[in-house]
Amino acid sequence: MHHFIRASDMRPTPAFPTEATGYRRFSLSDRDCGAVHSGWGLCELDANGRVNQHLQSFEKSFYVLEGNPVLILGNRAWRLEPGACGLIPVGMTQAWLGPESGTAKWIDMNTPVPKGVNFADDTYFLGPPPDNFVEPLDIRDPTSRHLFRMADDDIKVDSLRTGLRKDAPKVSASMATALLVYSGISLKMLVDERLDAALHTMFMVEYEPNGNVHPHDHPLEEAYFIVDGEVEAWADNDKYQMQPGDFLWAGVGCTHAFHNRSDATVRWLETQSPQPPVRHAYRFARDWEYFAEQLQNKRVADAPPRKKTA
Asked: Taking the model in full, what pTM does it have?
């Protein structure tokens, strides 16, 4: 089971009309498409807009695409930039303020999939946004533990070949923040246990030209939002040429694959929910096809010879 949406078909509409102004959301994956753990949405907030203070009975992560919205999380407020991301734990108070000009856009991911239109049934409003001092997001500050920001070069191998200066405006390098690189694929973790996520992960993926992953499936749900470039995607034997802004959700057991046949890199935002198990998170079709082939060869070899007839 899977679900695909073109960017041209995404039209955010007003959400929480009695508790927000200038706020719109478009549901990308929810119960209607069969999702159980992946409640994605495309959110917009206009200048001087707001979403009142509230808390929710599910885990949320977000990734800012455009603009500079303000997130009020707990008793602090941060002005965010594109590339900013983070976790809003279950039951933690939050509110949003619009940018000083233009419109801010971000992706949100909610798990388990909330109930009601735009998760209204699982959201509890507490009143107007508090009047907090707004500070810039400093990811070196250990007290901003639920937030992170990915710069463009954080997923570029060449830019990570040497160590960071002590005063570099980034988190300290460690295995927890490492870039995973394999078979023409780079993966940068954004939201996981490091930010206190318990129910899902969010990360950025980049494929080099001719980078590919063979058909496989998972005991979990995945979702993909193309940020830059194009990629050929397969899901349940259906083929899609995905472009910036396109979205694909793959349910448990959906066999899927990706191949970058272009001459440029392709980058997408991805989530896995629930978090992958320690073992057997990936089941590659070719491995089991190989096993079946070897088993058949053995049966042929072990078969008794046929008797000749006169």
From this structure: 0.93
